[in-house]
Amino acid sequence: MTSLKTLPKSEKVNVWVFPGQGSQKLGMGIDLLKLPLGKLRLKQAENILGWSISDVWQSQTKKLSNTQYTQPCLYVFMTVLADLMKKSGYHPDVVAGYSFGEYTALYTAGAYDFETGLQLIQKRAEIMSRLPQGSMVTLIGFEGDKLRDEVLKTEDVWFANDDPKYAVISGTSQGVASILSNVPVERVIPLEVSAAFHTPLVEPAAKEFQPVLETTAFEPLSIPIFCSTDFVFSLRVNQVKDNLIRQISRSVKWQMISQRLINQGINKAIQLGCGQGLLKPMKNIDPGLEISNVGSSADIDSIVIRDQLKKLANINPAVIRV
Fold first, then answer.
1. What's the family (predicted)?
2. What are phi and psi of 157, to 5 degrees?
3. Do residues 183 and 148 lie in contact, with contact meaning Cβ atoms separated by under 8 Å?
């Protein structure tokens, strides 16, 4: 186990967090198409995948919600953002990811190069795309006890997360429909996924994927990743790989992960990808947490300008007022 107490300290101890499948948005990554790094990564991706990431990003909604396409699209999108952040002089002290997001976190930590990671993701997505159809929905505004009771007694439905305010249930379409018909909910948000992830229903995919993962060479990690099933920081490749297999069929405990990160001294968090879904629970735990979202090259430019202004203000407070 690695503790943040053993890591080099800076003014802010920061974590980069990466969202998982279901966070994708049509139009994400469009600004990256004009950048040299974006063009290079898209060319590399097309050579590996045999199809165009940029076409799916821009106009193919149905493909973007199909696991076989979703995961490679998210991987390319978020890894390019991570590389651009590093080119701008930013580096995390630790990384963490929500489900699939752990793969982009591992890329950022140096576990594999871009192409090796994409080949791994391509195989994972192919395996998971063959799973039976299922449903995942986010529920907002419900009676907690009533929902828990219904989930416990309903066949083939499970909680896929641990958020008491924004519950995600996952299972067969029939099972999820049964829950929704028996529990009053103010708002139901279907997730753009094709299977019942983070349930025992996807264990066959985990078993099929395990030998693929085991035979993929990982480099030593340059920074720790927070393993979502062991709830520890790790630099150990074997532990990280075991975590990647287990997390496929287990509920994502992001509330617990957030609490552990903050307890270890994290006081700055940056989400790379669409939205701020992972940052909100962290901010609720620690209102003083400094948070930022990076979903485009413009967001990176804004962070750079903001930090430059802060430095100027610290040098001479009379120079500028922000």
1. Belongs to the fabD family.
2. -140, 140
3. no
321 within some domain: no
Cα 266 from Cα 262, distance rounded (Å): 5
Check: CB of residue 180 under 8 Å from CB of residue 173: no
Which residue has tokens 């039976």?
Answer: 132
Q: How far apart are CA 18 and CA 8, in angstroms?
A: 22
The answer to whether the beta carbons of residues 5 and 263 sit under 8 Å apart is: no
Shared-domain flag, residues 304 and 176: no
* Helix, strand, or coil (residue 156): coil
Token pair listed for 221? 């990690």
322 in any annotated domain: no
pLDDT digits (tens, 9 = 90+) for 158-192: 999 998 889 999 999 999 999 999 999 999 999 88
Q: Answer yes or no: is 159 within a domain.
A: yes
Tally of helices (H runs) and strands (E runs) in the chain: 13, 10
Residues 226 and 293 in one domain: yes
Q: How many domains does the chain have?
A: 2
User: Cα-flanking dihedrals φ and ψ of residue 37, to 5°?
Assistant: -65, -40
Q: Which domain holds residue 95?
A: 4-131+199-315
* Distance, CA of 127 to CA of 217 (rounded, Å): 19
Distance CA 179, CA 116 (A): 41
Do 233 and 298 belong together in one domain? yes
Q: pLDDT, tens digit, for every residue of 9-35?
A: 545 789 999 999 989 999 999 999 999
Which residues are annotated as catalytic? 99, 198
Amino acid at site 24: Q
- Whether 120 and 28 map to the same domain: the answer is yes
Q: Rounded distance, CA 132 to CA 222, Å?
A: 37
- Cross-strand bridge partners of residue 170: 136, 158
Token pair of 261 as six digits: 């990160």
